[in-house]
Amino acid sequence: RKEVEQDPGPFNVPEGATVAFNCTYSNSASQSFFWYRQDCRKEPKLLMSVYSSGNEDGRFTAQLNRASQYISLLIRDSKLSDSATYLCVVNNFNKFYFGSGTKLNVKP
Amino acid sequence: GAGVSQSPSNKVTEKGKDVELRCDPISGHTALYWYRQSLGQGLEFLIYFQGNSAPDKSGLPSDRFSAERTGGSVSTLTIQRTQQEDSAVYLCASSLVRLAGNEQFFGPGTRLTVL
User: Fold this and answer.
1) CB proximity under 8 Å: A 18-57 to B
2) CA atoms in the 13 A half-sphere facing the CB of B10
3) How far is B13 from chain A (nearest CA, A)?
4) pLDDT digits (tens, 9 = 90+) for A41-72
5) Which residues contact A90 (CB under 8 A, 6 or more apart)?
6) End-to-end CA distance of chain B
């Protein structure tokens, strides 16, 4: 079983839509969690860390559910520039495990 | 300021040849990570360094892969006797300290193609 699993998508949504991605992880002892964004043929960049109490950064909201071992990312009021692949990342004892990513296409 | 840099940006080699990939982390970053990403796949963790030491090498796919870091800065990933399945983008990342919550900053990657 993979350490981190994500729905590969693609999620095709119109501008202004709200879209949510989930990610599950297998190790209940995982210590920290992140969402990274990766544009086509570019390196990943940190979008936001995910805290136990949930956290928000502008249009982006991240949630962590330790009991069910999943994290989520909610994007409100989608912009064309949000089109990218979103990578779920889990840290276990200083090893970082990346999901294979969820592709988002925001259409005009 | 300067980010993480990697060289070469692209490398095409013949099966059986050795290749060296270089990573220059952000100045002052003590932790350095190597990953590889095959087409359409997620990142596969290879190895990390804290300073010049690599406490965990279990992510390296085979004994053809090795990495070193000198002076707490530049790191080199060496692949000996390359195989076609080694073709991927090799990404390097650095972070300020080796803490679970620390952001990793990625370099642009080296795209390796083994013919």
Assistant:
1) 31-32, 34, 42-46, 49
2) 2
3) 20
4) 899 999 999 988 889 999 999 999 999 999 99
5) A3, A4, A25, A27, A30, A32, A33, A34, A96, A97
6) 37
Over residues B53-77, the pLDDT tens digits come to 988 888 899 999 999 998 889 999 9
User: In Å, how far are A37, B20, B79, B109 from B7, measured between CA atoms?
Assistant: 23, 9, 14, 8
Quickly state the pLDDT bin for B101 (edges 50, 70, 90).
Answer: low
What local confidence, expressed as pLDDT, does residue B104 receive? 87
Of A31, A96, A100, the CB nearest to B45: A96
pLDDT band, residue B99 (cuts 50/70/90): low
Nearest CA in chain B to A86: B42
Instruction: Tell me if B103 and A46 make a contact (CB, 8 A cut-off).
Output: yes
Bridge partners (DSSP) listed for residue A47: none
Locate tokens 């030491």: which residue?
Answer: B53
Which tokens sit at A79? 């912009």
